[in-house]
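Suppose you are handed a protein chain with no further information: no name, no annotation, nothing but its sequence. What can you learn? This example shows the usual starting point.
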Amino acid sequence: MKITILTYLEKETDEKYDAVVDQVADALRPAGHNVSVLGVHGDVKKLIVGLARRKPDLVFNLMEMFGDNLQGDVAVAGMLDLIGVPHTGGGAGEYYLQQDKALSKKLLAYEGILYPKYAVFGNNADLETGGNLHMPLFVKPLRGEASMGIEVKSLVKDSRELMKRVTMIHEQFNDAALAEEYVEGREFYVGILGNANPQAFPAIEMDFSGLPEGEPHFLDRKAKFSERSKRYKGTKAILAQIPEELQARLQKVSVEAYRAVRARDYGRVDLRLTPVGEIYVIEVNASCYLENESEFAVAGKAAGIEYPDLVGRIVQLAMERHAQGGQGNKAPTGGSSRDGRGSSPAP
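A reasonable first move is to predict its three-dimensional structure. Written in structure tokens, the prediction is:
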């Protein structure tokens, strides 16, 4: 097939893009696909003309934002749907639901899936809105991704710290603030591949044992991106060494959460396991980061799927969806979990 990898550029004049683009391209070419790359910052005309020239059979959508709009990937997915180009990952509706963490929690609530209690503080919100929550709270942008706005100070212990953090998010990110009750416990990530019959990969656990004593156990931006920081050096993702029963529980809850937010093709579910054995869904990362050493790819390999096959399977799933009914907006089969049961803190 003719496959165009669609990716985001920091500036319209940039020629460099994320390493994952070349990795996906290198995975697809040996299978005989004609692969091109279209990098766009915020030029709608360049996006539309670039697609028209390439005439792809499929767009491998790696667009995470558009221009300076952090939610621009919602509009990009909608445009792809509108012009009828098959693409990997969700449509505009799915992306919007998954980005708005409060809406996604309401979907989880309907399905009876545990998640942290929360409150949303809009720009004009009364801070008394959070009066029913129990400290400490974890505060982050409502729609931010890649741990944007998340640092050690995101964990607040009183109303004064809460007010400062909410105000900072309003001013710096022009977004509502989400305050969640902090769930103490072990942190796991479960990769999911599929649509009607999604497959859950073996769980990955975040190991915080290398952090200095007293450091909070969650991933902030330093722990993810600042390689010289003590938080980056003190955390690592490992294949979880856990009993089969716990593995099965984590996978079951993850598949239910993946279905609840109508994720398509692939994604990763972030969870916390409390000391008494409760499993909380922190976030569902639909179309998660696909770099070949990411938690998703490592878990896929543990499930017996090498990286080229993993990328190829995502392509196959997207094309099957399109063949079965346009962009695949139908709910996944298998019924609601109510019929049966089922960043970091993975922010």
